[in-house]
Amino acid sequence: MDKAIIPAPPTAELEELFRAAHTAKHAAYCPYSNFRVGAALLGSNGKIYMGCNIENASYALATCAERTAIVKAVSEGEKTFTKIAITSDVETGFTGPCGSCRQTLAEFGLDLEVYLVNPKNQSKLYTLREILPIAFVPTDLNKPRLSHDVVE
Q: Residue span of the signal peptide, if any (predicted)?
């Protein structure tokens, strides 16, 4: 699913969101991969929550920029989001969210606008639904299930 490149942020709101993602990237703690990522998540309240990747010597305990932004937002009471901008230092192409981040974002809705932003401030726009087409969402927990006690 190739998308057209948006040459510059088309609105002041997106310019601010992209700038916040670039700013967050500069705070990244990534001594092992040297792969900086920044994310800026726009809450329905109009506030931008920034996040950066935070690595750990125990690699599995690293936290991605997108999940850092989500944790910050939720811990401050925001649970409804409209847009996220994600950027890295990759010069060609765009860096998308990993599977864990996509699933974590899906917890809060699949209609989220996901902007992948390169260092030149060019972007590509996707919806979360497009990049996570068969998402496991909270309503899946309400589906009828067999009893756990049934053994055949």
A: none
Q: Binding site for Zn(2+): which residues?
A: 64, 98, 101
Sequence ranges of the domains in the chain: 5-140
Report pLDDT digits (tens) over 18-64.
999 999 999 999 999 999 999 999 999 999 999 999 999 999 999 99
Give the gyration radius of the chain's Cα atoms. Answer: 17
pTM higher than the cut 0.85: yes
CATH of domain 5-140: 3.40.140.10
Residue 113 catalytic? no
Catalytic residue (choose from 13, 15, 16, 66): 66
C-alpha closest to that of 68 among 31, 93, 97: 97
- Known binding residues for substrate are 53-59
